[in-house]
Amino acid sequence: MGRLERLYLGRSSHSGHDAPLVLEQVAAGFPSPAGDYIERRLDLNEYLVQHPHATFFVRVAGDSMTGAGIHDGDILIVDRCLEACSGSVVIAAVNGELAVKRLLKRNGRCILKPENDAFSCIEAAEQNEVHIWGVAIYVIHRL
To answer: CA–CA separation, 41 vs 109, rounded Å?
Structure first.
């Protein structure tokens, strides 16, 4: 399991880190004529953070989730208010160490599944103390 580094981003009514939101949409197929004006300023917190007081950011270390599009060095946005249901990507403390895995609930059992065949599943059992910290809702990485 890789280590996860916590990142905190301060919130205010005007963060100073907002960027312009262009009114025109960008075509992913054929190009379209660009607009010459900006709709308004865009604060990514408005779009990515539903529960500000229960949301945190973590940096991923390791390759156990590459099959889910989560890579070493990516930043995850994690919401502690959401219920971790089967299929959710979660941040879990396993025996005191943080990990990002997909949660599977089967027949009353909880399994933390990596999205890379080189890694093994972790079952929440007596030998593994597992606490779910939150549900990953977005991943941020460079293209």
So the answer is: 46
Per-residue pLDDT tens digits for 13-47: 444 556 555 555 556 666 555 555 556 777 888 88
Are the CB atoms for 65 and 78 separated by under 8 Å?
A: no
72 and 127 housed in the same domain: yes
d(CA 57, CA 136): 9
Two tokens, residue 116: 């890379």
- Do residue 27 and residue 41 come from a single domain? yes
Residue ranges making up the domain that contains 79: 54-140
Are residues 76 and 33 located together in one domain of the fold? no
Cross-strand pairs, 102: 89, 113
| Residue positions annotated with a catalytic role | 64, 101
Contact 77, 138 (CB under 8 A): yes
- 14 falls within a domain: no
In degrees rounded to 5, what are phi and psi of residue 123? -100, 135
Can you tell me which residue has the tokens 């973590």? 58
pLDDT at 35: 54
**Residue 43 is which amino acid?**
D
Nearest of 121, 49, 51, 63 to residue 92 by alpha carbon: 121
For residues 32 and 94, membership in a common domain is answered with no
